[in-house]
Specification:
By secondary structure, the chain is α+β, with helices and mostly antiparallel strands. The chain is built from 5 helices and 16 strands. It is 34% helix and 25% strand. The strands form 4 sheets. Strands 3-12-15-14-13-16 form a 6-stranded antiparallel beta barrel. A 4-stranded antiparallel sheet has the order 4-11-9-6, with no helix packed on it.
Length: 336
């Protein structure tokens, strides 16, 4: 009985051999994986070349990194750190603006008959840009011209009556009262003609106001209306009322940089101080300028004061509402 139990507990020799073979197979697989990993990890001479998109292959030094000589010959992007302007006492950022933005509005309620510009168009001083419907005023003008003609006829008749009365009075045929009445009728006809001519001049002004002209040489910033649209001098009836402006124009050669200056830096800025303006979009370009305006009142909530820097010779690279960096050059002589 004991011998049978021992035989059951004993391990077969063939089973023992298969177990050993499986163990060594696992070890061999692990060693093979390690060897492959070392092969790809270990640096080789062929790994020293690194292809850069759009450039000539550069030979590297340590672990495939480019050498110092190769780095110096490659093209690198411009530094994002702006160069310091000589003599600068303060550098701040602001936004480019038009010194004057002019919105052309009608002088009275009317209908847009024609608009001859669009956004981005150049305009000259005196150029016709919008026509309003003037048919009503031209009709009233013709009516008043008829009244002027009638008044002129009345004056001629009054002049004849006055002349006749004067001759009869001189011949002692009529009384002085008749001559005075004729003279007064003549003066009344002349006054009526003057009144009608004044009304005619007013209607002519209204007809002229139907022609909208640009007041400056500049560029159209916005076209705010379309033909057949109602326009009024000022808005009424809420936000969806009639338009109050026709177009907005500005001079692209008259630009400023608007800055909100911290109160701690106010002592470094003064009127007519020289500045250097660099647009953030073109950091390799810079422009001369000067402090043109310092607001008389600060913004309490932000603790800032608005300062405007006039750009002396702007060009096409300066776009309103984009940001720009301003270097204030020189110290305030009043503080020295």
């Amino acid at each position: 009985m004991n011998e049978e139990k021992l035989q059951q507990l004993s391990i077969d020799r063939q089973t023992k051999q298969r177990t050993h073979r499986s163990f060594w197979g696992i070890l061999l697989g692990i060693a093979l994986v390690i060897a492959i990993a070392l092969y790809f990890w270990w640096p080789r001479e062929s790994d020293q070349l690194r292809l850069v998109k759009g450039r000539t292959p550069v030979k590297g030094g340590n672990n495939g990194k480019p050498s110092a000589a190769a780095t110096n010959t490659s093209v690198t992007p411009a530094s994002t750190t702006p160069a310091q302007v000589e003599g600068s006492v303060l550098t701040v950022s602001g936004y480019i603006i038009n010194r004057e933005r002019i919105e052309l509005s009608p002088r009275f309620m009317g209908i847009v008959k024609w608009i001859g510009v669009k956004k981005g168009d150049s305009v000259t001083n005196g150029q016709i840009v919008v026509l309003l419907d003037d048919s009503e005023y031209k009709a009233r003008l013709k009516e008043i011209e008829g009244r002027v003609s009638n008044a002129q006829v009345a004056i001629k008749k009054a002049e004849l009556d006055d002349d006749r009365a004067s001759r009869l009075l001189a011949a002692n045929i009529e009384s002085k009262q008749l001559a005075d009445d004729a003279r007064l009728r003549l003066e009344g006809a002349q006054a009526s003609l003057q009144e009608i001519e004044g009304a005619k001049s007013l209607i002519e002004i209204y007809v002229d106001w139907c022609v909208i002209r640009s007041p400056i040489n500049g560029v159209v910033l916005e076209k705010l209306v379309d033909p057949n649209e109602l326009v009024v001098p000022q808005s009424f009836g809420g936000g969806r009322g009639p338009s109050t402006a026709l177009i907005a124009v500005a001079d692209p050669k008259d630009l400023q940089v608007e800055i909100d200056l911290n109160e701690a830096d106010l002592s470094k800025v003064f009127l007519n101080q020289k500045c250097r303006v660099s647009p953030e979009a073109y950091q390799d370009r810079s422009y001369n300028g000067y402090v043109a305006e310092i607001a008389p009142e600060a913004t309490r909530a932000k603790g800032t004061l608005q300062v405007k820097v006039q750009i002396e010779a702007p060009d096409k690279y300066l776009t309103p509402e984009l940001s720009a960096r301003v270097d204030f050059v020189g110290k305030n002589p009043a503080k020295e």
